[in-house]
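We give this protein:

***
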Amino acid sequence: MHCPHRLLLVFFALSASLMAQSSPVPLANQPLVPAAVAPGNASFMLTVNGANFVPGAVVNWNGNALATTFVNHDRLAATVPDSEIAASGTALVTVANPAPGGGASNAVPFTITSPTTSVAFAVSTLPVGLNPGDVVVADFNNDGKADLAVVNQRQPDATCYTPQRSNVGTISILLGNGDGTFSNKATLCFPDFLGDFAGPQLVAGDFNGDGKTDLIGSFWSLGLWDFKVFLGNGDGTFSSGLGFGNFDSIIGPVISGDFNRDGKLDVAFSAGALTFAGIFVFAGSTFNTCCSAFGPLHGASLATGDFNNDGILDLAVTSSGQRPVTILLGNGDGTFTASAVQPSLTLVNPVFVTTNDFDGDGKLDLAIADAGSNALTVLHGNGDGTFTQVSGEPALPQFSNFVTAADLNGDGKLDLVFSNSCGTGCTANAISIFFGNGDGTFQPVFSQTVGNAPHSLAVGDLNGDGRPDIAVVNSADNTITLLLQTLGYTAFVQSPINPDGSSIFKASRGVVPVKFTLAQGCTPTCSLPPAMISVTRTAGGTLGTVDENMYLTNADNGSNFRIDPNACQYVYNLAASDLGVGTYRVDISIDGIVAGNAVFALK
């Protein structure tokens, strides 16, 4: 590692007296509890789980303080009045610790929307610079609308660089218009050293404590990797800030958090310095103090949260080495200790990890993208720094290289979104969505086509309708695919089948009429699109899909499944006598997505 005079290569540690005087920067977890409510609901109690909370912490709703109760260092409760949830939309929830130190946490979205069983997208393409590597969603100009920042790793720009130096790499700031479209506001440049190109990482946060969102990116020059801090001005423009680092091997994943609890955001990342590869932490504000270092360990991805419920931020690190996931428990001074019990699992090339509470028990879990297999890997957090792999998860259609979590369909359960990666020559350019069951397990995959070579992605309400949208980086065709949610379909089973699954019929009867009405969004509709039916035996006899073509016929293309326009419903006359005794589920799918189902038993 090459250390200029501005770096003090010492391990930093705060004295006990300073820690007592300063509040740490809080971190808020997903999901909020509840994670969503329908518009027009009554006031309710919101639970915010996270880390680094202190007495006097306040939950803010779109910047406005809520009446807040401090439960413990990992949990707050706040009352949300009914006036805040009268109409559809997305609120940004943050936590603020009192001064000195303290400040605001990351923003967690809360959606005000009615739940659906499916999602649908309007797809558009946004041109960006050459070889985009990462995208983040944030509000850079404080207008309450979601903006984008995209790092273009190989983009030349005459306004940034001296032409003969062949420097490349910019960051595009795209301000949201509130309707899912964007305007190019600014282009950020890396230092005009010889032979620059930008790294793929981009991290947003308030790194100087002025209440405005800043950015950190990495770049390479003359054999060294460095960081650049861009300080936000609050209007979508940025001032050139600090640089720090100078590492002689590639800088890997980067995350932020107040790891030493001094009230300032720090930066943790994987990098190499001479013969040492490890996880480095730079202290916040000026970033001129390096550092806590843990290794040897060259990570492919980092995630942070309080994994052992001691109120201190920990790290999860993925690596393609002998140990695919390493848990580092924070000591509260910016240093870490490896957990005595590490996760036991087999992964080929774990390239990304995200942490959220997928099973609703208040303990952080992990989800991992594997670029060497199609496994969907979820680790259940035990709350003591240990993890147990969840079994029986569905598979991805291809390998994956990125994963994030969000409640896409407004049912209060976190879903997973993967970008697919299936090797050289792969034509399956898509993302994979798995709807969560709320217990740490997930439903079978729903795939959405995007651009060429999707890589990172970001989720946010890009058009202000209360439904999370997705921005996907397509690194090979220099675009962002924007996936704006449209009103999805929900099918409702009708008599004689009860919606609670309690219906029982005689197996000897000739026909069981299965009927569905349809709603688009929250509105019932008589415009019934083409649909597909499938029948699954869930108990009794041979389990699985009933493999008979008569049960899978398109509506209006066969005698057993049709649309009744007068009753505004789908009608499926199921030949019960052919099925036999057992319990059955009939799924109705529109555009390849299950919109509803009917469950009944034959005796």
About this structure: The radius of gyration is 26 Å. The helical segments are 16-21. Confidence is low (pLDDT under 50) at residues 1-20. The chain is about 0% helix and 45% strand.
